[in-house]
Structures are given as structure tokens and as C-alpha cells.
Amino acid sequence: MADIHIAPSQSNVIEVEINGTLSKQDCAALLPTVKERIIRFGSVRILVHLRDFCGWNLRAFDPNPGLGLQGDEEVEQVAIVGDRRWEHGMSLFCRRFRTVALEYFEPDELNVARAWIQAC
């Protein structure tokens, strides 16, 4: 299992830091926050910071994760900050949101990613 930290926020931006190996249980643990913010704001923007990330358990890539989302419009943007070696895999993971704006940032571009996710 990974060590996951969700930064406190009073907006529709969810900033998640992931350390270690991501599991299906880790993904499920994020759902209450995502759903609560969607109910409160109508949509969310997600910034994922992969810090000391070791990859994922293949079951974390559940093709039908049961997010309970109504449609792609509930997730507006996803910013991923981390080592480029994870870019392809994380983009596949985010593919479940077909119309989401997705950007990948280098580890030293965390503030750039925060600015991008806040823009609009």
C-alpha cells in the first residue's frame, strides 16, 4: 500500500501526494474526497504528486473502478507531477476520463502544476 496524503482545501482542487506502491485499496480510499468535492462544487480538478513513487499493483487499474461519477465533466483537469518514467502508465490510468485535460510535469515543476490546475 502507498502512503497517501490529501492536502486540505476549500476548493474543487484535490491535491494528492503518493509515496510507495499504489493499490486498489488506495484508489478506493480517495473516492470519498472526490465524491464529496463533486457534490459540493459540481466538478473537481486533481493534482497528483508522485513522490518516492514505486508504481502500482496491477489491480489498482480496475477497468470499472466504481467511481460513481455521472460523466467526464465531473473531472475537469488532472495534473501529474513526477518522474517521466511514470508518464505513460499514469496517462493510461487517467484514460477513464475521456475528455479530461491532462498535463504531466517534472518533479521540480510542482508550482507550475499548481498554477496550471488553478487556471481557468
Query: Strand share of the residues?
Result: 25-35%
Major sheet description: 5 strands, mixed
Radius of gyration: 13 Å
Query: Structural class of the secondary structure composition?
Result: alpha/beta
The CA-CA distance between the termini, in Å, is 34 Å
- Put simply, the count of helices is 3
Low-confidence stretches: none
Shape from CA axes? globular
> How do the strands of the widest beta sheet line up side by side?
1-2-3-4-5
Helix content: 25-40%
Helix and strand run: EEHEEHEH
Overall number of strands: 5
Mean pLDDT across residues: 81
Quick structural gist:
By secondary structure, this protein is an alpha/beta fold.
Protein traits:
32% strand; 120 residues; alpha/beta; five-stranded mixed sheet; single chain
Description:
The protein is of the alpha/beta class and about 120 residues long. Helices cover about 30% and strands about 30% of the residues. It has a five-stranded mixed beta sheet with strand order 1-2-3-4-5, with helices on both faces. α2 links the parallel β4 and β5. The termini are far apart. The mean pLDDT is about 80.
List the helices and strands and how they pair.
Layout: E1 3-6, E2 13-22, H1 24-41, E3 44-56, E4 75-81, H2 87-93, E5 101-105, H3 110-118
